[in-house]
Amino acid sequence: NADLESRVAQRTQELSETNQSLRQEIDERISAERQRDHLMDELTVQLRFLQILMDAIPNPVYFKDREGRYQGYNQAFGAALGLSREQVIGKTAAALFPAGLAAFYQGRDQQLMADGGVQQYETVLRYADGQEHTVIVNKATYHTLSGDLSGIIGVFVDISQRKQAELELDRLMRELQAKNKELESIIYVSSHDLRSPLVNIQGFSRKLGK
């Protein structure tokens, strides 16, 4: 009986220690889950904030993964191209643009991901209004915390009005140059035509002076 009681006491002690360990593990898991839920809530708030911030930017903004698939964009991007979320998210440029233009964009993306840094170029896009717009595309790579390449973020600025103003300025400059040449020609002809009468007047003046 004494031996049995000793074994029971030892087993009870072991079970008590096991229960305490389990209770501590459960408490740690509950704490970890609460911390995880808190971090998820903070992450959700941050993502919403970033989306609101992107939507507040008047220029079209988008970002892709390293495979060239669109992962997100702002309202200006969707409005400019007239595309819905289902038409953009998870798709590549080949699904959004004509074949030649898509191949050009994909080539520039690959070059940027290979070289890193930033990239800028001018191109023409057909907007939802049916008009071709001249835009300047600015892109950059973004990375994970460990430094691995995650993808590309881009923004394009519509310079159609500025481009039109530059073309109009060039046209006016050409017209001004043409007018200047015409004026020079008139002045030359006028001076040539006036030279002979002036010579005669000078001759008669000398005669009258004598």
Q: Describe it for me?
A:
With 210 residues, this protein is α+β, with helices and mostly antiparallel strands. Helix content is 63%, strand content 19%. The chain is built from 5 helices and 5 strands. It has a 5-stranded antiparallel β-sheet with strand order 2-1-5-4-3, with helices on both faces. Strand 3 and strand 4 form a beta hairpin. It starts with a helix and ends with a helix. The mean pLDDT is 86.
Strand content: 15-25%
Number of helices: 5
Structural class: alpha+beta
**How widely separated are the two ends?**
166 Å
Instruction: Report the average pLDDT across residues.
Output: 86
Strand order of the largest sheet: 2-1-5-4-3
Which stretches are low in confidence, meaning pLDDT under 50 for 5 or more residues running?
none
What is the alpha-carbon Rg in Å?
39 Å
Shape: rod-shaped
* Largest beta-sheet details: 5 strands, antiparallel
Number of strand elements: 5
How much helix, percentage-wise, in residues?
Answer: 55-70%
Order of helices and strands: HEEHHHEEEH
In short:
This protein has helices at 2-56, 75-81, 85-88, 99-115, 160-209; strands at 61-65, 70-73, 118-126, 132-143, 149-158. With 210 residues, it is an alpha+beta fold.
